[in-house]
């Protein structure tokens, strides 16, 4: 016996499968259904989508980067997308990371630092956030900031020459030779 709810759930499953197919084809689409489905699937609040969460977050990241690289006329679309992410999943660091990436691309350093710091607060071990913060602190020679961001994650970071070289410089210029 099919109920309207059962039909709706079947349709949701069909859309999720389409989204996952799009992801394996590495196609990005601006379809509203596609984006809405990704936002739903990334939500921590809805346990029905837990098996899709990792893939959907990866796709949201790709989609956000795709939007942020568009011309200035698309900036409102990007901001709307980030805002929808925040509304649907307020505890997620992804929206702040995407905003920081966009600010970084536009060379708006202060906005990027603010967004990356917020992403870092929400998910302290988010390797890309750590590396971006180091990139932003290094030219300004904010050695103590670099140490504060990098030191707690020494064991968790994947091998990165940039990470260890930047941390080494910070220790050297703050005269902490034994650390």
Rg (CA only): 19 Å
Shape: elongated
- Percent of residues in beta strands? under 5%
Order of helices and strands: HHHHHHHHH
Tally of individual helices: 9
The termini sit apart by: 68 Å
Largest sheet, described in full? none
Q: Helical amount among residues, as a percent range? A: 55-70%
Task: Give the rounded overall mean pLDDT.
Answer: 75
Q: What structural category do the secondary elements indicate? A: mainly alpha
* Uncertain spans: 1-8
How many β strands by DSSP? 0
Structure description:
The longest helix is centred in the N-terminal third of the chain and has 21 residues, at 4-24. The termini are far apart. The protein has 179 residues and is mainly alpha-helical. It is elongated. The model is unreliable at 1-8 (pLDDT under 50). It has 9 helices and no strands.
Q: What tags apply to this protein structure?
A:
elongated; 9 helices; 67% helix
Question: What topology does this entry show?
Answer:
Elements: H1 4-24, H2 32-42, H3 53-68, H4 75-88, H5 94-105, H6 109-122, H7 127-137, H8 143-150, H9 161-173
Helix pairs in contact: 1-2, 2-3, 3-5, 4-5, 5-6, 6-7, 7-8, 8-9
Tell me briefly what this model is.
By secondary structure, the chain is mostly helical.
């Amino acid at each position: 016996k099919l109920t309207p709810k059962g039909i709706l759930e079947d349709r949701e499953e069909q859309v999720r499968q389409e989204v996952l197919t799009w992801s394996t084809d590495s196609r990005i689409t601006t379809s509203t259904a596609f984006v809405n489905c990704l936002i739903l699937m990334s939500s921590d609040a809805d346990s029905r989508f837990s098996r899709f969460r990792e893939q959907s977050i990866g796709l949201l990241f790709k989609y956000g980067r795709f939007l942020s690289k568009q011309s200035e006329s698309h900036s409102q679309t990007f901001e709307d997308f980030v805002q929808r992410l925040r509304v649907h999943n307020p505890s997620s660091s992804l929206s702040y990371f995407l905003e920081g990436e966009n600010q970084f691309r536009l060379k708006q350093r202060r906005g990027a630092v603010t967004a990356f710091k917020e992403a870092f607060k929400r998910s302290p071990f988010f390797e890309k956030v750590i590396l971006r913060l180091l990139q932003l602190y290094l030219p300004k020679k904010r050695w103590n900031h670099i140490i504060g961001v990098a030191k707690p994650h020494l064991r968790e970071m994947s091998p990165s020459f940039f990470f260890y070289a930047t941390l080494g410089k910070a220790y050297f210029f703050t005269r902490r030779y034994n650390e």
